[in-house]
Amino acid sequence: MDSTATPSPLPPDRWRPLRTLRFALVVALMFTLLNFALTSNSPAWTTHDGWWLAGSTSLVFALCISFSIELLFHASRRLFGMRLARWLVGPRRYVYYWGVPLVGVIIGLPLASLLTGAMRLKSGGPTLSATPLGAAVLLLLVMLVFYGYFTIRGWQQRAERQALEARLKLLQGQIEPHFLFNTLANVVGLMESDTPRAKLMLESFVDYLRSSLGGMRKADHTLGDELALIEAYLRVIKIRMEERLHYTISVPDELRAMQLPALTLQPLIENAVLHGLEPKIDGGSVRIAAQLSEARGGPLLVLTVDDDGLGLSTDRPKQRNGSGTALANIRERLAQAYGDAAGLRIEPVAPNGVRATLSLPAHALAATSTQRSAP
Question: Where do the domains of the chain lie, and which CATH numbers do they carry?
Fold first, then answer.
């Protein structure tokens, strides 16, 4: 892996036909006015049919080119996912954002020409002709408009993603003071009464710190990395709660190599422990599981965190009531990274407890081994 060029994720793969349609309408109006400026001497402009034909022709061209470009962007991200993100480093990013609009124009222009030719034959209305220079100018402007639009969109999405990554790094750099101080206080307390247990707690805490801080420097954080952080955290809590805490992690090895945004799953475990299990006199258990599930939009990676703690009841003991910031942060990051294709659901479990379910589009979570072999 090239350590000097860190790949950044692609903008969310969102298919928005209404936005593309609005853009095409604006472009069609611009092209109609430009066509009028270049061919104002044509008698066709003196009739309503001429204006209608010019406007509808511009609209067909704008629609064909707009949707061709949009489909190419959508298909490339859908097919190649994070492998494409790894490839788009340095000058190749410019090639991508220049090349896709160019190919879209190459595909859209002949298609629009066929459709508008059929329209003229069917209507039998007036025709508009342009000089060779006017046609060349029009084609150049078509390229510039579409390239500029999709490039600006890419810049905006990258700016949003960079702001999100900055907030994530700030979150990763902050170890919760309550957890930190409690762990160190427990280690100090155990040094005299139970030295082996104090040593085990300190070693587990060091593993937690290593996993947490190491995740900040990795561009390809995986589900396996997240589970290593979670297991180190639960080992520390297990030493503190002893037999009051039980946990299981049921995740197939083949899923552990899939990419996962750092600190996506770990806050759900903290919530289960701090608000569900620790305040409960008898404690309880937490179970982490992962599986692939088929959905209408494609396969999903489904991650579940189940606990049998106090649940969502409002009359439970008030201990460190959460503000919901962690859940809101997760939902915001999922929306930025995957759009409507990902989600987080929190629901009660009978007879008591809570289930948190994370759903992520599997096609966007390329395995690390596959990514490292990408160009």
Answer: 17-162 (no CATH), 173-372 (3.30.565.10)
